[in-house]
Amino acid sequence: MQVWKEYQDKNKDRFLNELLELLRIPSISAKAENKADMVQCAEVLKHRLLEAGVDKVEIYPTEGHPIIYAEKIIDSNKPTVLVYGHYDVQPAEPLELWKSGPFDPVIIDGKIFARGSCDDKGQVYMHVKALETLIKTNTLGNNIKFCIEGEEEVGSPSLGKFVATHKDVLKADVILISDTSMISLDTPSIDIGVRGLSYIEVTVTGPNRDLHSGVYGGAVANPITILAKMIASCHDENNHITIPGFYDDVVDATLEERKLMAEAPFNEKEYKDDLGIKELWGEKGYSTIERTGLRPTLELNGIWGGYQGEGAKTVLPGKATAKISTRLVPNQSSEKITAMLLEHFKKIAPPTVTVSAFEHHGGEPYMTPITSTAYLAAAKAIETTFGKKPIPVRGGGSIPICALFEKELGIKIVFMGFGLDSDNLHSPNEKFNLENYYKGIETIPYFHKYFTEMSV
To answer: Which of 174, 310, 313, 366 has the CB geometry, 3.0–4.6 Å to 374, for a possible disulfide?
Structure first.
């Protein structure tokens, strides 16, 4: 609608400056030292939601970080959309790889560089500005609620209890999430599913202290060596995961779905050049797009042990530790896979070491039907502003709360992500294109319009 575009064009500089303010707050949920920053970020969002025109905003304390709830109710008989997002961000390390300060946002070549610019402050803030657009132009035709948490990056430990005890407050007809990506502005897409997650930590212990590698080397098992062998054994020569039973519950994609996904443009050379690699790697028999969306994976997220300071220190370390995650696909259970992983690493350890392992967090895979009213409304909204029908794709990442929301609230989720896979999520130099940010603000009001019209 022209009135929306006029309002957004008039206020686009303010929309950007408000986002930059949010990005300057180091709301890192994983670090206790940033607890005050988490509270500050929640307060800033509360203020901006009130300015946008919501009826009320409440900041709910939890055992961890606060949850923000806001609502604009125009008519209880009208459809209600619940917008979910998160204001916490990943740690910024390694800091030396950033070209600018992770919490000192800069704009270079039309891109905002800052931690959280895409995941998820930039994307959740599009919804705040879309709401403002609808309210200030007197065109809001449905009810809108917000649930914005501060613990998504650490597994949402407080959200389950909050949702279970606030079902009436969160009651809605659909949940709208922008914590995903699209192929590009030239080829828009909608994620129809996200993978589940199982995240564990494994420690291998050998001698009761670090030893002199000359005196004891060759006589005592080195925990780093043993851990490396254990991890390497988790894939075979075809990069297939070797853990017994890992694939038992996997629901294979149909040939029709694989054919549909193959329609998405993919340039292997550009993909490799962007990542600075010579060759791709993955499970034999599947394309790159299928490996990152349709298939489960096991990845090593971090490993350490022994001396890591400057210079040399010839030690045989007493212990070594690794963080390991698996991405899961429909019908796999994070609880089952986690138990399987923990047992596997204990079982394959040789008698020369001892192994301890525990779970960090997990979540279930989620799929949204492409025949739902919400998906059709999202597709129509994107087609309206992009001029092209979006391609349905499966996302490679995980949003652990999806299955939780559906179980507790009994409603479906639709994804409308405007980021790009190349936006360096969880990496140094995270970015978000200004064009994508503004396109999201332009498109989201159409979702509300079409969802309301289609729900009648």
So the answer is: 174
Dihedral (CA of 298, 299, 301, 307) sign: positive
Alpha-carbon distance 299 to 1, whole Å? 45
pLDDT of residue 244: 97
Among candidate residues 152, 153, 179, 423, the one labeled active-site is 152
Q: Which residue in the block uniquely carries the two structure tokens 């796999």?
A: 332
Q: How many CB atoms lie within 10 A of CB 396?
A: 19
Query: What is residue 398's predicted lDDT score, i.e. its pLDDT?
Result: 86
> What pLDDT score was predicted for residue 253?
83
* Phi, psi torsion values for 33, nearest 5 degrees: -65, -15
Phi, psi of 344, deg, nearest 5: -60, -50
Rounded CA gap, 451 and 325, in Å? 36
Q: Give 398-419 pLDDT, tens digit per residue.
A: 888 898 999 999 999 999 999 9
Q: Residues in the chain with pLDDT < 50?
A: none
Q: Which amino acid is at 27?
A: S
- State the catalytic residue, choosing from 88, 120, 173, 442: 88
Asked if 63 is an active-site residue, the reply is no
Structural domains in the chain plus CATH codes: 2-194+365-454 (3.40.630.10), 196-250+296-361 (3.30.70.360)
In this prediction the pTM is 0.85
